[in-house]
Amino acid sequence: MSSAGKYSVGYFVNWGIYGRKFPPSLIPVDDLTHILYAFANVKSDSGEVVLSDTWADTDIHYPGDSWNDSGKNLYGNFKAIYKLKQQHRHLKVILSIGGWTYSPNFHPVVVNPALRSKFVASAIRLLEDHGLDGLDIDYEYPQNDEQARGYVALLQELRAGLDAHASRKGADYRFLLTIAAPCGPDNYQKLHVREMDQSLDFWNMMAYDFAGSWDKVAGHQANVFGGQISASQAINWYIGQGVPRDKIVVGVPLYGRSFMNTEGPGAPFNGLGPGSWEQGVYDYRALPLPGSYVFQDDKAIASWTYDYNKKEMISFDSEQVGLWKGDWIRREGLRGSMFWELSGDKGSPRDGMESGPGKDPQPGRSLVAVVKDAMGELDRSPNWLQYEGSQYDNLRGGMP
Fold it and tell me: Where is this region: Disordered (predicted)?
């Protein structure tokens, strides 16, 4: 891989268009190189990869979409995102398959060659139908060696399938294959990393959720150094397994995790704060909560808020930590940053979103923009726009 620009990779979640009021038009395209579109599901009994919300993905009409077009046409988030690709030729869009909720469906599929074959064919069909640049596998996580070996085989077969697809199309283009990679030793030590790496374009490290409701003490959820789990410890392990630095993309959370009735990091806690959309988890855009103070640890590269009245600690990445992380990525020669997920960021108006504690936006810059500025120049390699094999008339015609 060339030492070209950095990658800035953002997850766009298809449920974000509902309560969070985050349609594709709010994606910060100038601060990103790749969008990971989350999530497609996989059927555990057949291996078929399927869209998880066709209304959001392919049907919803956004402003400017006609109700009178003849033929079979693509609408929804995928049309809106394809139009972003036309206007911003550096922007690649990758379909993310799996995620925490759907991951158990992978277990029977990866160990069965017939189901893997169906997985590959159906995933590539979705790519061509919807105008995408690649596939991302979010398998959380293989539980045993049989599944870990099946994961290697699935990636090999996907890589071969994507290359054959490009060849059939006569496309001088490498469709991308990536994964969401674990940073917890119990999970990453099961993986056959060296073999997986041969099929992958880059690795998106889930360098967050190191602490949370499942723990006994409050802690940092996304620290670079120190603690039982850290981003640097995980990344050094992957590098030791042969993954090149310029294929490692570091995950950054656009949310914070709450610990109630605690004195702070390392101290016991009891209970979780109410959160923005689910208990214990706050959007970055709503932090710091009014009445709380921000603390930063430049050795761990971590930050948190603390409310002395409520005795609530929230582990999150501040602007300062975003700056430190972007700088660390640059100095370490890593490929870039990844964000879960874009609707949690600051810097975009949310027309019609309900207000209230944990939802009201707080001042500050977009964390995606802060990290991007600290990393340096972004990659500008072009996306792909020709999908003559799509089932949709308007996409085959290039969305006139």
Answer: 344-365
